[in-house]
Amino acid sequence: MALQAVYDIENNKVGEITLDDRVFAAPVNQSLMHEVVTMQLARRRSGTASTKGRSDVRGGGKKPWRQKGTGRARAGTIRSPLWRGGGIVFGPKPHDYSYKVAKKVRKAALRSALSMKLSEDRILILREFPMEEIKTKNFKEVLDRFGLTKVLVVLDKDDENLEKSSRNIPAVKMMRAEGINVYDLLKYDTVVLLEPSVKVIEGALS
Question: Which domains does the chain have, with CATH numbers?
């Protein structure tokens, strides 16, 4: 069990928390993380790219010229893929790119991502993040106090003041502990965990 310092928003150490080694000191498996991130990105694809085949292009119903006797190559339609303005051969059609990986693979990848962040000293644990009003300036002051820029903040419950105070700041994302994923953990430089969210994560992954 590893001990990690807990801070308040004034950047003062106010205590320590014991982290579960099964979650925050697991072996880092790069291939698992890659597999899960690829799956996440595939699920985000809209899959709406589409082209028209020769039967979909308007026009071309009449045979351009007779079959024989002109000296030219035979042609049945001006919408042939060989002609300018014709159909597309084997072009993309709308379809679903999403697929699934096993739940235990997703959990193992999450443990790998959290363990890697902790080993790189890129996890900050806050006792709480009180925001009495919706004020972007106040939220930005806290980030500057810790020297944070590209940040993922993990909450244990919804906090409207906190979420609305952060939404106009570039490269800052708020997320409930239940929704953490490998892609966002790797995308952001620093992961800020509110102390209660640590137990939620450990309960789900240990």
Answer: 2-46+98-205 (3.40.1370.10), 51-91 (no CATH)
